[in-house]
Hints:
Layout lengths: L39 H22 L11 H14 L2 H32 L1 H16 L2 H12 L3 H25 L3 H9 L4 H12 L1 H23 L7 H10 L3 H29 L6
Amino acid sequence: MAVEAQRPIVYPVPDASVGPPAKGAPEISINRPHGWRRYESTIIGTTTVVLFLVIWQAVAFVRLVPALFLPGPLDTLNALVGLVRAGTIWRDLGVSGEELLIGYGLSILAGLPLGILIGWYRRMSYAADPFINFLYSTPRIALLPLLIIWFGIGVASKIAVVFLGAFFPILISTQSGVRNLDPHLLNVAKSFGASDRQIFTTVALPGSVPFILSGLRLGVGHALIGVVVGELVGAQAGIGLMMATAGATFQTSKVFAGLLIVAGAGMLLTYGIQRIERRFQAWRPQ
């Protein structure tokens, strides 16, 4: 006598939009933070920053350290307001923003596909690794005189510095993401007869997303360093030039104002990439 296969029992999932759950339906509990715990990270982070600013202003107020060496937050804010009122900051912001966006954008356009190709094709990585290691270990500031000779003292040479600074973190992180794929996922895909193109689009690329986004975050910091360092030598305008001029004339509060602008830009870009990272985290194959 044939034994009938036992069919799985499927319980109805209650829908909050259609009223209370049916009688006898299992309750589904979702672990969500309640009360202030929902905003715990924001509260702790904001409190820590405010406490730091208060201590910094207190140290500046009692002049434990001369203002020439450590201006207070209010001194920095007044210097920033003075730059805005004078109107000179807008040209510097425009030039530095152009260098950052173009250089960082080009590094993404070049670093992502090249990193994927080098990580996917091992022989290509054998040929490219010596050049990547050589150029990545070379300080970008050492290449700045050569870039000025090639591109001049205008914006183009600064864009090249930003590009070289952000290109290699993006390239290396993407390459590492493709190389460190879970071999079990690859074997399962091959066992089901998936082609190389299907494996690449459904396993390799989604599995590399966390590494790619980490490379983008690292690239932001290197790109901002490239903006400031590039404008210290042979620049006509920019935040880095403004900071260098203020430092040469002992206007320390203006130097701190420039640091505040650069750090604020980096925080905004990093926050945007973190939002994208959280959005695409579910894309990673499990």
